[in-house]
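Consider the tokenized backbone below.
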């Protein structure tokens, strides 16, 4: 069994002895390198010994044996070798901020409404997630974010990590029931008067003061399977850097639009409205042009069908060229990009059937209704040839 030294989150150097080796992994009698567990990613670092050193790229804990295995990049120290370990401080700090923020944010949701219980967490990347039951609405999400922001800004919550016998767990206001049996390590963030803000059973690494995890920013929410809502958040220095980047981008955009940052949303909404109006105008112009080109196209009598074939400069006019036809007419529209369509105002000619036959002959795909059908083909001349041949064939 490996003795865990990482429960002291500030311990970044340690000594140990190699007890086992396999493949590219070694296990030590003691380690300050946190293994991948509880939604928190493993620490990385370095092991050094007389005559060698190797990078630690990850760690895992074998529950059956209690051994913590360290994956090494480089030569392995032999079993029985004493080593000096060093934890990557920046990575550890980011993980501490993320994990503490997860506890604090989860508690904020519970205080907004006790039905918002955490069912899963992931803190392996700057964008962390907590999955909540209870279907929180946007108003609940913002209430939890506000509650936590005000708590971290106005109160000094300090970390306490007692190891408590299982029989005494009922004396603590656990946010959720512990899955650990026997002695249990608790992570408690206490107010100055000693009352707890959050109490959780946890073996992870955490910042000594809750304010060190600030800011905690909720980025988005989404419903996932099983009626669970996933809340994506960032914390600490990663959140601050993200917000700084977002503000810099917003300021740059605002300067380009000659408005202050606070008026940028309104300016963007105006531009979106203007864009929609212009898009509608362009669509109308495409339609007008398509109908004009269609009506100017020569007619081709094929049996009792009057056919017009029109080549359009843009697929946006396709539907307009295929609708509002004269009785008995069939319109075929094609574009240089391979988009094609057939419109039928002939009572005995099914546009969908004709289109599928011509697309099959020209290697294309598509379909539609008796009066209107569209598709695409890599062989427009072959498509037109197949249309004419089908219409010219004896009934």
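A designed sequence for it:
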């Amino acid at each position: 069994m490996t003795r865990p030294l990482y429960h002291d989150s500030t311990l970044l150097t340690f000594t140990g002895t190699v007890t086992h080796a396999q493949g590219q992994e070694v296990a030590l009698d003691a380690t300050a390198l946190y293994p991948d567990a509880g939604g928190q990613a493993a620490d990385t670092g370095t092991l050094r010994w007389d005559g060698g050193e190797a990078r630690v790229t990850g760690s895992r804990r074998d529950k059956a044996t209690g051994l913590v295995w360290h994956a090494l990049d480089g030569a392995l120290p032999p079993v029985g070798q004493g080593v000096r370990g060093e934890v990557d401080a920046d990575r550890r700090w980011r993980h501490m901020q993320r994990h503490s923020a997860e506890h604090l944010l989860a508690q904020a949701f519970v205080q907004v409404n006790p039905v918002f219980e955490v069912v899963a967490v992931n803190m392996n990347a700057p964008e962390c997630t907590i999955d909540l039951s209870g279907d929180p609405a946007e108003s609940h999400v913002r209430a939890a974010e506000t509650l936590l922001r005000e708590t971290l800004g106005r109160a000094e919550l300090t970390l306490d990590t007692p190891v408590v016998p299982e029989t005494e767990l009922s004396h603590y206001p656990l946010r959720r029931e512990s899955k650990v049996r026997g002695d249990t390590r608790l992570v408690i963030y206490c107010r100055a008067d000693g009352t707890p803000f959050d109490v959780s059973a946890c073996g992870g690494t955490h910042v000594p003061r809750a304010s060190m995890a600030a800011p905690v920013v909720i980025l988005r929410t989404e419903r996932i399977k099983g009626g669970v809502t996933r809340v994506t958040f960032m914390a600490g220095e990663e959140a601050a850097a993200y917000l700084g980047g977002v503000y810099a981008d917003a300021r740059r955009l605002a300067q380009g639009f000659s408005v202050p940052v606070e008026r940028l949303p309104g300016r963007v909404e105006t531009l979106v409205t203007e864009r929609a109006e212009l898009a509608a105008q362009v669509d109308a112009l495409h339609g007008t042009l398509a109908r004009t080109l269609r009506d100017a196209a020569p007619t081709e009598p094929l049996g009792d069908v009057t056919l017009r074939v029109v080549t359009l400069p843009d697929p946006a006019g396709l539907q307009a060229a295929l609708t509002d036809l004269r009785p008995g007419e069939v319109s075929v529209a094609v574009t240089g990009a391979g988009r094609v369509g057939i419109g039928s105002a002939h009572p005995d000619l099914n546009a969908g059937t004709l289109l599928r036959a011509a697309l099959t002959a020209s290697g294309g795909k598509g379909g539609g209704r008796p009066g209107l059908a569209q598709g695409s083909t890599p062989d427009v001349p072959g498509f037109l040839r197949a249309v004419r041949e089908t219409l010219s064939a004896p009934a």
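The first helix runs from residue 89 to 112.
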